[in-house]
Design brief:
With about 220 residues, this protein is an alpha/beta fold. It has one domain: P-loop containing nucleotide triphosphate hydrolases (Rossmann fold, 3-Layer(aba) Sandwich). It is about 55% helix and about 15% strand. The protein contains 8 helices and 5 strands. The protein has a 5-stranded parallel sheet with strand order 2-3-1-4-5, sandwiched between helices. Helix 1 crosses helix 8, helix 3 runs parallel beside helix 5 and helix 4 crosses helix 7. The longest helix has 25 residues. The termini are close together.
Length: about 220
């Protein structure tokens, strides 16, 4: 099997229903056939501690204010980094993460009106000690398409009408989320690769594997 050097951190970002979670799972399976060390995880919820925070953060039963929401996401990230991400990177793993620092900047900063963007950036830096992904894949699509996909998923799962707190936000919020992600991608073109999430699952999978493979020299 091929091996990767330490520090191979790839993040998957996008609006609700963009398909990023499916693509991360497919990429993990693809690279596990080629590498001995691949980890796939997510935020929030990549640890047992984080799973409890995820339940609280996504539940429509609660409506935390902006600072409370931000601090909960950062607490999840700190635990996730110390328990999962940094140990795996130190061991030479290819680490794939469904949402990371950019989601916090977009959802808790930019889409909330932008007043907290500076604070989010500073606290992200404190929590991560400056760790930045080597590659971020942004699954870009109009939010109305993503939200319809999310609704279809809930219907398939028998959870229609039980969308999470973010899925229930107004369309304007999701449009701001997309705009925020595109702004970050334009600001950091060396880190971000923007993918058209309207493509078929298989077409996106091929692009994802090509981008990761080329970035880290994995055949």
């Amino acid at each position: 099997m091929n091996e990767v050097s330490p520090g191979m951190l790839v993040t998957f970002e996008g609006v609700e229903g963009s398909g990023k979670s499916t693509q991360m799972e497919m990429a993990a399976a693809h690279f596990r056939a080629r590498l001995s060390r691949v980890a796939a995880t997510r935020e929030p919820g990549g640890t047992p501690f984080g799973a409890e925070l995820r339940r609280l953060l996504l539940s429509p039963e609660y409506a935390p204010d902006a600072l409370t929401e931000l601090f909960l996401y950062l607490a999840d990230r700190r635990m996730h980094l110390t328990a999962v991400i940094r140990p795996r990177l130190a061991e030479g793993f290819l680490v794939l993460v469904d949402r990371f620092i950019d989601s916090t900047w977009v959802y808790q900063g930019y889409a909330r009106g932008g007043e907290m963007r500076g604070l989010v950036e500073r606290l992200n830096g404190v929590v991560t000690a400056g760790l930045v992904p080597g590659l971020t894949l942004l699954f870009d699509c109009p939010p109305e398409i993503g939200l319809e996909r999310a609704r279809q998923r809930h219907r398939r799962m028998g959870t229609a009408g039980r969308e999470d707190r973010f899925e229930q936000q107004e369309l304007a919020f999701h449009e701001a989320v997309r705009q925020g992600f595109r702004l970050l991608a334009a600001r950091e073109p060396d880190r971000f690769v923007v993918l058209d999430a309207r493509l078929s699952v298989d077409a996106l999978h091929r692009q994802v594997c090509r981008e990761i493979g080329e970035r880290y020299g994995i055949s």
